[in-house]
Automatic annotation (TrEMBL):
Span of the signal peptide: 1-22
KW Signal (keyword) present: yes
Source species: Alloalcanivorax balearicus MACL04
Coiled coil: 92-185
Domain (SH3b) ranges: 22-86
Protein name as annotated: SH3b domain-containing protein
Length: 221
């Protein structure tokens, strides 16, 4: 009984399909390859012809036949028509596309570079204009500073002149006061001198009278 179970399991395992794995493959050469329902020429054709260079999914191998999937169909084609790499035509086509893409990218980059150079030149012009404007503004600022400095200098000079004038007025007042004192002193001296002269004249007159009286008395004797 156990042997029958083992035999049954072995037969079931043999009947099960091989493990399916997916990988990319391409139909080789410029031909149309028929896809059959089984691994052999006796099986019916499920697709009349797959054009060379067509990408298919590789599902497995059975002898000289390859199990593939194309679209929603599965079948077998002879191994000699399967290439694990794209055909030369496809590689050339891809290379051409890549070259055209690179050329287009290079053209775009050149155009962008030209635009950037134009922007750079424009920015340089703006920088030069800004520098010229800054120089002009600096000159105007210097002029404004000079103009603003003149009133300050004039105000400082006026203040110094007012201070000097005030000092001169004070000195003049002092001189006037001193002159007034000198005048008063001279007047006093003149009065004193005049009084002294008068006194001296009176004294002299008295002395002369007394002398003349003595002489008369002497003559009378």
């Amino acid at each position: 009984m156990q042997n029958r179970w083992l035999s049954g399991l072995l037969l079931l395992a043999l009947c099960l399909p091989a493990p399916v794995y997916a990988a990319a493959a391409w139909i080789d050469d410029e031909i149309y390859v028929p896809m059959r329902a089984g691994a052999g020429t006796g099986y019916r054709i499920v697709h009349r012809g797959i054009k060379s260079g067509t990408r298919v999914e590789l599902l497995g191998e059975e002898g000289d036949w390859i199990h593939i999937r194309y679209g929603d169909r599965e079948g077998y084609v002879e191994k000699q028509y399967i290439s694990r790499t794209p055909t030369a035509a496809l590689r050339l086509q891809k290379l051409t596309q890549d070259t055209e893409k690179a050329t287009s990218t290079a053209s775009d980059l050149r155009q962008q570079m030209a635009e950037m150079e134009g922007q750079r030149d424009a920015l340089r012009g703006e920088v030069e204009e800004l520098r010229a404007s800054l120089t002009s503004r600096s000159n105007e600022l210097d002029q404004l500073r000079n103009v603003a400095a003149d009133p300050i200098r004039l105000d400082q000079a006026n203040r110094r002149l007012n201070e000097e004038l005030s000092m001169l007025r004070s000195e003049l007042d002092q001189v006037k006061a001193e002159n007034a004192l000198l005048r008063n002193d001279n007047t006093s001296r003149k009065w004193i001198t005049g009084v002294g002269i008068l006194l001296l004249g009176a004294i002299g007159g008295l002395l002369l009278k007394s002398k003349s009286g003595r002489r008369r008395n002497n003559w009378a004797n």
